[in-house]
Amino acid sequence: MIISIEGIDGAGKNTLARALTERISADRLAFPRYEESIHAQLAARALRLEMGDLTNSAYAMATLFALDRHGVVEKLRAASGRDEILLLDRYVASNAAYSWARTEDESVVQWVFDLEFGDLGLPQPDLQVLLDTPVKVAAERAEKRAEADASRAKDAYETDGGLQARTCEAYRRLAATSWAGQWIVAQPNEDVSSLAERIITRIQAQKNL
User: What Gene Ontology terms describe where this protein resides (cellular component) (predicted)?
Assistant: First the structure.
C-alpha cells in the first residue's frame, strides 16, 4: 500500500512518519530525493535562484519534481496494491497543490494528474493524509529547522508566505474532492499519536476490503 503524507513546509510530515513507523512496519521514502535524483537537485538549485528564470515557471518546476518520482517508479509500482506499506513524505498531491497555488489556475491540477499518473505511469496512492497545520505554525517550525541546520536553509517556496497560504488552501480543496483517491485530514493541533492510530485503523480497514 502507498500512504502519502501531505502538507505545507513545516506541517509535521516527518514527525508523523516517525510516529507511524514506531507502530507499524513500513518502508519510508521522501520526495524530493535531493541526495539521489538529478531532477530533484536541479529543482533545489532553482529554488535557491541558481538556475536563471527556471523557477519562474510552475510547469517547469512541476516537471522536475514529477521526473524525480519517476526515477523510482518501479519501487512505487511494486508497493501499490500489496500488504507491505510504503510511507511517502510528499507525493503527487504536493505537485498539484503547489502548482495550483503558484499559477492560481485550477486547470494545472488536471495537468499534474495526467503527467504523473498518466504519462509517467506512477501508481495512485491508497491513502493520502493531509496535515492541515496553520500556516503561521508551519512557518515557525520551518524557521527553527533552518536555524538549527544550515543544510535546511529556507528556499524560495518556503520564504513565500503567500504561496504557503495558497498551497494550504489548495490542499484542502484537493482533499475535499477526494483527488486521486482517499484522504484523511488531520485537524490543527490533533495529537500525533491519536492521528497515527486513526491512520492505522483506516489502513487495516482497507486491507480487509
Answer: cytosol
- Residue burial 55-82, b: 16+ Cβ < 10 Å; e: rest: beebeebbbbbbbbbbbbeeebeebeee
Q: What is the pLDDT of residues 18-51, one digit of tens each?
A: 999 999 999 999 999 999 999 999 999 999 999 9
Q: Which three cell numbers stand for residue 78?
A: 511494486
pTM of the model: 0.91
Separation CA 88–CA 126 (nearest Å): 11
* Helical H segments across 89-160, by residue range: 92-103, 107-113, 135-148
Whole-angstrom CA distances from 207 to 124, 197, 203 are 16, 15, 6
Give the domain ranges of the chain.
Answer: 2-208
**DSSP 8-class letter at 6:** E
Q: Which CATH code for domain 2-208?
A: 3.40.50.300
Question: Residue 147 has what pLDDT?
Answer: 67
- The amino acid at 156: A
